[in-house]
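Re: export button greyed out
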Amino acid sequence: MKQRALWSAAVVLGLALASGCGSATAPGTSGSSGDKLVVWDWKSGDANVAAYLDKAKADFAKSHPDREVEFVAQPFDQYYTLLGAAIQANKGPDVMLFNGGGQLRDRVDALLPLDDHLAQDKQRLAGWDAFTKDGKTYAAPVTLQGHPLYYNKALYAQAGLNAEAPAKTWDDFVENCGVITEKTGAKCFGVGNKEGIGIQFFLSSIGSAVLTPQEYDDWIAGKRNWASPDVKRIFELWKQVNDSGLNNDGANSTAMFNDAFAVFQSGKAAHIIGLMSDIGHWKDFAEFLDADKVGVMGAPVVNPAATPSLPYDGGIGYAVAKWTKDPKVAADLVRSLTSSEALKAFYADAGAIASDTTIDVSEAGPAVATITAGIKTGKPALHVALSSKTIDLMGRLSQQLISGSVTVDEAVAQLADSDKAS
Amino acid sequence: MVAERNEVEAVAGTTARRPGRPATRRNRRGSRAERLAPFVLLAPAVLIIVVLRLWPLLLGVNFSFTGDGDRNGVPVGFDNYLTLFGDPLFRTALRNVGLLVLLLPVAVAIPGLLATFIYLRVPGHRVYRGVYFFPAVLSPVIVGAIFTLLLAYDGPLNTLLGGVGLGPVDWLGDPDVAIFAVVGVHVWATFGMALVVFLAGFAALDPSLLDAAKVDGASLPQTIRHVIVPALTRTIQFVFVTTMIGMLTSMFGLLFVMTGGGPEGSTYLPEYYIWVQQGQFNQPALASAAATALFLIMLVVGLAQIAVLRRAGRED
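Workaround output, generated via the alternate export path:
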């Protein structure tokens, strides 16, 4: 009896203790130690970035031959949770990969401002804004992410239109779409708004053709005037485009990733607002449509006072933790990770628009050439400036606009409230 | 079911007799250990429930009265609950719970009817018995992915409808239709389990009753109404309870894959709302408030069902 009682007690104690363990976070295991630099990311496990990392490591070894660098690939869906635990414990990787925008800005307290170390790269690289907070730069951009308007040149040719001279104004654009649909049966836009992502891409891509440059810059700076007729015009267009049958059928039940892209790739739609890096971009489209047949056009002008520009932001970039032992060395590693040679390999293998504007992209087809040409004059994307709550609301409202259960005025008013609250 | 109950009673009888053993047989030295024994033996179960269930539950409820973001850890009273009930999305989620309760009879009737047909040996009943159970072994993610394809606007179902001259329906894109589509898929994916329970109930049904009904010239609807349903009352109640729990707690996978809460937020359920607030908007305290609300709903529904079951039990 006593034996059994003891055993039960032991089992209970074991269970009670075990219940406290098993958390997903174990930051101590791969933290920095001694002379070794530890880098956290979610990419280094992929085969298509192997060449990029080799180039970066070689570049770093030139200036610091005795320093060892360890890349630790974390699962992306847990990345910021793990990083949060490391930050809480004030120890972890020396250098870490970040998505541009909110993810980085929320955590700048744990990061080292890099302006002094990266001054020489400021001209060569683009996309710094996404890694900047209160005038200080916290990471060096590796890729750029944005929303070019892609079009299928084969469909243009089939419809008897000049594929090399796409429409410059909205009215011409709609007219061309009519011709294409009549001649080829293809819709004007491939769009997926099941997750409410369609409106994000639409807002950012068409926005620069509707808002005046002043309105655009104010929007990015946080002074958003939702009552302005131009802002309303964007949402009116969103509704109009769908009501007049320019979108593929069932936009609200089509997923952007990847059903809408499939609509474009299979030639069922002549245009799509896609991405620049990683997925739903020139490299994916070229696999189906042939690189020469994928074109990129500027947003057709809706408002004569607007100047269309390429909407893009820094995609991913490397930052340095404030607890690193030797900030200079860590910053040098960041510079190596954004060196021209390394980024060239990233662009070629992973199919991303790299942040380095000096990379020669002439072999990748006309789409990439047009995108890189637009980077100099490009501006941050409109939807990236909104809070995640407002974006979520915008997704739902955009679906309601399509189904007709909300008016543009009501939608814009709700968005204004949400934007003010956050 | 009846046999099972008798067994339970028999077991209960033996345990009940044990304390009735003559007290004189207890010697003094053994008595202390024996007095402690029940507590020690119960301890693992009690501790697991208290430490891993009740304590986290209390922490969660407590947490729901604190703030998010800048007000992290600060007591905010009922603020989170006010936010919750002011949020049209959460109200939609609650409305959808009501809808699920209303749809419950349909979800129970389908496996019930099919089990009846199998029991009455319609041609091919052996095949159906196996086929009907198939979906129950598929993960909701796979089921969701399959039906997302089938129900797509340009998908096979709409092509089929178009073939017979019916206009396409945006199954997952129309806010008035989507929730029914998802519930329908959920019923399709899970009715196999209820079917098996019904078949088990039929196994205990006295066949002479059916023979008697046949001799008396009862039609099929009459047989179902007057013989099968009364004989299966307890089975039906059991299926009601398990189906309700299944609908309220395990539709997340389907929602995530098929609609993502959309279109227009029309397919939100409380558990999906909790996930969005916690995982997407980083508002764990608000999510805790929603979880507490869901817990209360489940408690009310559960207690109501226990009451119904108890009353039905007395009738026997």
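Residues 28-63 of chain B form the longest helix (36 residues). The button fix ships in the next patch.
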